[in-house]
């Protein structure tokens, strides 16, 4: 703001925004589809073996995590990075080239990896299913992003790193460490010269493999679904509302607290498994402590709106962001509760777990990316947002969808957990396993409908974005705070 | 200190890295060696079982089935003895799963038979009314990729010293022979024929006799091994 002479270049940010929308529709579409498959199993056969639940489920998780979310993260990085460092991408041909290369390698790499999953190439590890050649591509993509971050930092004008930058740097480092160690695998073809060249075998066996996987799995959630999303909200909420961040000290406490505590919590995925008991207990305790830094960030954001709650009524983007913060609080309270050993004994392996994940991903990650991209759209295209009304309807539709999703999964999970352990008066198991499956049909149906609501909202978002780009009224200069929108 | 770090990105990044790397080191490293020890008498997978395990992974069976029996009476009543650390010593990757949309399979070999599986994979709701598991009929036609399974067995033998071609229990005999690919393939075909005959499906037996093992046969051999 002090330096209006800088013309930021949004090319790469724009490209990643298109991709976020594309992967969002694809990933969520598959998600809704497989949700209906659980309620109506005949749907498994519409495309032969390629539409079986087990084939599509990894596709759903990978496309929403590594397609939709990463695209959203990078769309905002290539926008926020320039602005908080007060330097334009256009000032460096090299960084511009790196940014574009980053985009294309990511786009083509992700497509190839997704096709490989469809063709049954998988390592089986959740969120790390890609076989080894794709892992190498992921590393290259990550290195390019690193060059982009530290390159831009190298030529920055604003010497002090803004809070969002802390979180982007942490995302870069965290995912790099986790991904490398969890994907240590030996390509069997390179050792023996036989068999499928894409096949590999894990470097770790059994319980060790499980420990490394959930150290990764839980913290991939940390560094893909949490840390970079906090980077977004620290930039976009103050910007859209025109309010300064409530407390610097709180942001400091939350950041360093989150960095230190999060990594310990992975053990809560392995409670009552064969990993050492002390590690299970550590996972459980640190998960509860994790409430502090998580709520620290969320409260810092909510308090940023102090005295300005009126904006919640007028501006749907503020609605999305405030509710994102609230869902973040819900998810980060629910997670620690599920990590308590006695609760975990009931909740583990049930539908309560996907229910919990979707509180975070739909409510927090999804809403934040939607809001961020709609905030950027008027700046990308020098046009006002096409329709406020559409955003409003989208907001309420998606919120209803999330509520349907998590309430049905709460009931389903607790029902199933209780039925697995129920005994009759003689101490024999009261239900056979299939009883605990058939009873879930109404909840599976409800969940799928909730997902359909959310997906419909995503289509409305895509339409609104497209119309903003092509048919909305032009604005003269870049808006400073609240995004202009037509009724 | 913090405001200094915020102006010095390199040291900031180093600081963040130390703080995040700390937990992993303390949680994972101390028990690493102990955890990889097999229980007494544990044997590596035969070539056919390993090929079946690859089918299990390829079809992402672990998306809906766990292989981890927790130490609760309700679980041991339903699935059998709770799982032990050393039983997983030859599992690369581990297949514990995280969701039981279907039941646990860690000891499914104790209470299901080859013909039960062969009927079940063909049409699950016909065997378990109300089941939401889809049929896996393409496994009856797909031919098992023994070569990749052999490559995996040879790799773990070479790189991780998995005891193929060794006397594990000290009775003077080799417990799980691997040998050359030709030897291993011959053994796998023999094993497969036995499983195929147990399924009582002529089409599966015929395919094995022609030297082609249907994927479902390898998968059943793997499931029978889970005890």
Structure description:
The complex is a heterodimer of chains A (487) and B (227). Chain A has 487 residues and is mostly helical. Chain A has a single domain, classed as Cytochrome C Oxidase, Chain A (Up-down Bundle), CATH 1.20.210.10. Chain A is built from 17 helices and two strands. In chain A, α7 packs antiparallel against α12 (316-339) and α8 packs antiparallel against α10. Chain A is globular, with a radius of gyration of 23 Å. Chain A starts with 10 loop residues before the first helix and ends in a 17-residue tail after the last helix. The model of chain A has no long low-confidence stretch (mean pLDDT 95). Chain B is mainly alpha-helical and 227 residues long. Chain B has two domains: 2-30; 47-225, Cytochrome Bc1 Complex, Chain D, domain 2, CATH 1.10.760.10. Chain B is 50% helix and 0% strand. Chain B is globular, with a radius of gyration of 22 Å. Classes of the chains: A mainly alpha (487), B mainly alpha (227). At the A-B interface, α2, α5, α6, α7 and α8 of A face α2, α4, α5 and α8 of B.
Salient structural properties:
A: 487 residues, mainly alpha, two-stranded antiparallel sheet, 1% strand, B: 227 residues, Cytochrome Bc1 Complex, Chain D, domain 2, 2 domains
């Amino acid at each position: 703001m002090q330096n209006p002479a800088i013309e930021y270049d949004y090319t790469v940010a724009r490209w990643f925004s298109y991709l976020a929308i594309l992967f969002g529709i694809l990933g969520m579409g598959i998600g809704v589809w497989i949700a209906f498959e659980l309620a109506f199993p005949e749907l498994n056969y519409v495309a032969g073996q390629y539409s079986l639940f087990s084939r599509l489920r990894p596709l759903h998780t990978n496309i929403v995590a590594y397609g939709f979310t990463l695209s959203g993260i990078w769309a905002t990085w290539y926008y926020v990075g320039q602005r908080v460092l007060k330097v334009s991408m256009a000032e460096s041909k090299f960084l511009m080239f790196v940014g574009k290369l980053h985009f294309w390698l990511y786009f083509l790499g992700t497509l190839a990896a997704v096709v490989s999953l469809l063709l049954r190439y998988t390592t089986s590890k959740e969120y790390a299913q890609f076989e080894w050649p794709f892992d190498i591509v992921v590393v290259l993509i990550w290195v390019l992003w690193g060059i982009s971050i530290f390159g831009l930092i190298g030529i920055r004008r604003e010497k002090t790193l803004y809070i969002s930058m802390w979180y982007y740097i942490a995302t870069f480092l965290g995912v790099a460490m986790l991904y490398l160690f969890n994907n240590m695998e030996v390509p069997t073809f390179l050792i023996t010269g036989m068999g499928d060249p894409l096949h590999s075998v894990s470097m770790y066996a059994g319980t060790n493999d499980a420990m490394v996987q959930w150290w990764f799995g839980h913290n991939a959630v940390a560094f893909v679904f949490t840390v970079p999303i906090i980077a977004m909200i620290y930039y976009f909420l103050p910007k859209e509302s025109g309010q300064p961040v409530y407390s610097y000290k709180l942001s400091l406490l939350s950041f360093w607290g989150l960095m230190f505590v999060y990594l310990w919590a992975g053990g809560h995925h392995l409670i009552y498994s064969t990993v050492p008991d002390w590690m299970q207990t550590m996972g459980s305790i640190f998960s509860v402590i994790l409430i502090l830094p998580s709520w620290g960030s969320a409260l810092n954001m909510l308090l940023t709106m102090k005295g300005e709650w009126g904006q919640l009524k007028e501006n749907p983007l503020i609605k999305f962001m405030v509710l994102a913060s609230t869902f973040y609080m819900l998810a980060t309270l629910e997670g620690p509760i599920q990590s308590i050993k006695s609760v975990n004994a009931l909740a583990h392996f049930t539908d309560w777990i996907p229910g919990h994940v979707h509180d975070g991903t739909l409510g927090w990650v999804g809403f934040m990316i939607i809001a961020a991209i709609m905030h950027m759209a008027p700046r990308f295209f020098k046009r006002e947002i096409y329709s406020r009304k559409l955003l409003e309807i989208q907001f309420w539709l998606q919120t209803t969808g999330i509520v349907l999703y998590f309430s049905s999964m709460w009931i389903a999970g607790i029902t199933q957990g209780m039925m697995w352990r129920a005994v009759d008066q003689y101490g024999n198991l009261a239900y056979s396993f299939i009883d605990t499956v058939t009873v879930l049909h109404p909840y599976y149906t409800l969940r799928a409908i909730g997902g359909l609501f959310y997906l419909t909202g995503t289509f409305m978002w895509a339409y609104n974005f497209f119309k903003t780009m092509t048919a909305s009224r032009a604005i003269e200069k870049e808006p400073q705070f609240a995004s202009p929108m037509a009724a | 200190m913090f405001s200094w770090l915020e102006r010095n990105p390199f040291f900031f990044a180093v600081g963040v890295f130390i703080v995040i790397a700390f937990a992993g080191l303390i949680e994972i490293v101390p028990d690493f060696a102990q955890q990889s020890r097999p229980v007494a008498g544990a044997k590596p997978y035969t070539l056919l079982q390993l090929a079946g395990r690859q089918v299990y992974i390829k079809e992402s069976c672990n998306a809906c089935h766990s292989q981890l029996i927790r130490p609760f009476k309700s679980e041991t009543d339903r699935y059998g003895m709770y799982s032990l650390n050393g039983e997983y010593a030859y599992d690369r990757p581990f297949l514990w799963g995280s969701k039981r949309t279907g039941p646990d399979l860690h000891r499914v070999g104790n209470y299901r038979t080859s013909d039960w599986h062969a009927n079940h994979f063909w049409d699950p709701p016909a065997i378990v009314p109300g089941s939401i598991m889809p049929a896996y009929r393409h496994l009856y036609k797909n031919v098992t990729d023994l070569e990749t399974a052999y490559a995996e067995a040879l790799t773990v033998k070479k790189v991780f010293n998995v005891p193929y071609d060794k006397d594990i229990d000290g009775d003077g005999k080799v417990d799980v022979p691997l040998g050359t690919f030709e030897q291993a393939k011959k053994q796998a075909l023999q094993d497969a024929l036995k499983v195929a005959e147990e399924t009582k499906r002529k089409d599966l037996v015929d395919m094995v006799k022609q030297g082609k093992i249907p994927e479902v046969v390898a998968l059943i051999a793997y499931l029978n091994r889970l005890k």
